[in-house]
Amino acid sequence: TQLLEQSPQFLSIQEGENLTVYCNSSSVFSSLQWYRQEPGEGPVLLVTVVTGGEVKKLKRLTFQFGDARKDSSLHITAAQPGDTGLYLCAGAHGDAGGTSYGKLTFGQGTILTVHP
Amino acid sequence: NAGVTQTPKFRVLKTGQSMTLLCAQDMNHEYMYWYRQDPGMGLRLIHYSVGEGTTAKGEVPDGYNVSRLKKQNFLLGLESAAPSQTSVYFCASTNKIRRGYTFGSGTRLTVV
Questions:
Q1: How far apart are CA A60 and CA A77, in angstroms?
Q2: pLDDT at residue A16 above 70?
Q3: DSSP notation for B38-95
Q4: What does the mean pLDDT of chain A come to?
Q5: Tell me, what's the pLDDT at B40?
Q6: How much of chain A exceeds pLDDT 90, in percent?
Q7: What residues in chain A have their Cβ under 8 A from chain B's Cβ atoms?
Q8: Which of A4, A95, A101 to mutate to test the interface with B (most CBs of B within 10 A)?
Q9: Cα(first)–Cα(last) distance of chain A, in Å?
């Protein structure tokens, strides 16, 4: 089993603070994805990073893929209560159509609570 | 709206009962997956399908069976439910992994 270790598991912060969530593995991934999940709903894709060292920005969210494609981070600047939710990283070992059939390995998740 | 629809949304079963969870997608996706989500354990793959008529085992397949008779539907069956199968079940689909999965809203199953 390819493991993805996500940290921290819980994060409780005040509005306006910055935070970083980490996703680490000993395996190399062809791409890594970040999802956000709200209570009672399924995860929703935020971003896919593909190239080692790649950095993507989505408004106040910055995603980075490690040079060796084994780790990733999600940084949120000036967190808002609307950012509250479960954040999941997921690694892919190949593209759909390849031998891995598009299977994703998920981290355990980080529950983020942003207090007003 | 296009997407993945799961039925039912909630279900309570007694130990030993059977049931089928239905997943339907209208995006013409080839690849479909069943995951279970438990606190502190993320999402774990139960079974998956790479096309109509094909299925394969994932990480935690024991106690579950699946069928994909039509491209748009992926069924997950529990033949004899056990309390350890209490979980939230998610179906997902994709055509290209880099575009990410589209998930359903989940089925919360409790086995008593």
A1: 5
A2: yes
A3: -TTS-EEEEEEESSTT--EE-SS-TTEEEE-SSTTEEEEEESS--GGG-EEEEEEEES
A4: 91
A5: 80
A6: 78
A7: 1, 4, 6, 9, 31, 33, 35, 40-45, 48, 50, 88, 90, 92, 94-97, 101-104, 106-109
A8: A101
A9: 40
By Cβ distance, the residue of B31, B40, B104 closest to A102 is B31
Residue B15 · residue B82 · CB < 8 Å: yes
Q: What is the pLDDT of residue A94?
A: 65
Look at residue A1 and tell me whether its pLDDT is greater than 60.
no
Provide the β-strand partners of residue A24: A5, A71
Write out residues in chain B with pLDDT < 70, as ranges: 1
Q: How far apart are CA A63 and CA B62, in angstroms?
A: 36
pLDDT tens digits, one per residue of A74-109: 999 999 999 999 999 999 876 555 556 678 899 999
- Which two structure tokens, joined as six digits, stand for A94? 């190949």
What is the layout of strands, in order, in the sheet containing B64-67? B4-7, B19-25, B73-78, B64-67
CB contact under 8 A, B31 and A44: no
Of B58, B95, B105, the CB nearest to A40: B105
